[in-house]
Amino acid sequence: MHAKPTILCIDDEALGLQIRKIVLERAGYQVLTALDGMSGLAVFAHDRIDAVVLDYAMPGMNGSEVARAMRNSKPQVPILLHSAYVSLPEEALRLVDVYVTKGDGPEILLSKLKDLVMGRLPEEEGGAA
Predict the structure, then answer these.
(1) Which of 28, 61, 98, 116 could form a disulfide with 78 if both were Cys (CB 3.0 to 4.6 A apart)?
(2) What residues contact residue 111 under an 8 Å CB cut-off, 6+ apart?
(3) 129 has pLDDT over 60
(4) Is 20 within a domain?
(5) Furthest C-alpha separation in the chain
(6) Which of 44, 33, 41 is nearest to 11 (CA)?
(7) Where are the alpha helices (DSSP H) in the chain?
(8) CB 74 within 8 A of CB 48
(9) Half-sphere exposure of residue 113, counting CA atoms within 13 Å on the CB side?
């Protein structure tokens, strides 16, 4: 067992990805990043990942395609879909463990991510933040 959980963040927006990396590192996570789905899948295949923070709208592969590939190779790794879109296709939501909009802010992201890493089911939470 390693001390810091490893989070893989995949987002084609470089600035947002760097900010998220800093926020997560300050919260005690080790963070690996990728700017597209294919790069993210390569990291996912070769590194021990405790959870994934995944953007939906990316060139090449969207979040559904990336999540589907991850589920096929390591179904036990929790995936948090983090998108600017308020409504996403049902398939995308079925493939991930929890969905957080980018407008929700870092507190919500950190809270949901902590729940995933600790193994709590997001459906058991109630109410607004």
Answers:
(1) 116
(2) 129
(3) no
(4) yes
(5) 37
(6) 33
(7) 14-26, 37-46, 63-73, 90-95, 106-118
(8) no
(9) 29
Q: 72: domain range?
A: 6-124
Determine the Cα–Cα distance for residues 46 and 82; give it in Å rounded to an integer: 23
What is the total count of domains within the chain? 1
Mean pLDDT value of segment 95-112: 94
**What CATH number corresponds to the domain at position 79?**
3.40.50.2300
- 71 part of a folded domain: yes
* pLDDT mean over 82-97: 90
**Does the pLDDT at position 106 exceed 80?**
yes
Q: How many CB atoms lie within 10 A of CB 114?
A: 15
End-to-end CA distance of the chain: 32
Residues forming beta bridges with residue 82, ordered by sequence position: 100
113 band by pLDDT with thresholds 50, 70 and 90: very high
Confidence of residue 120 (pLDDT cuts 50, 70, 90): low
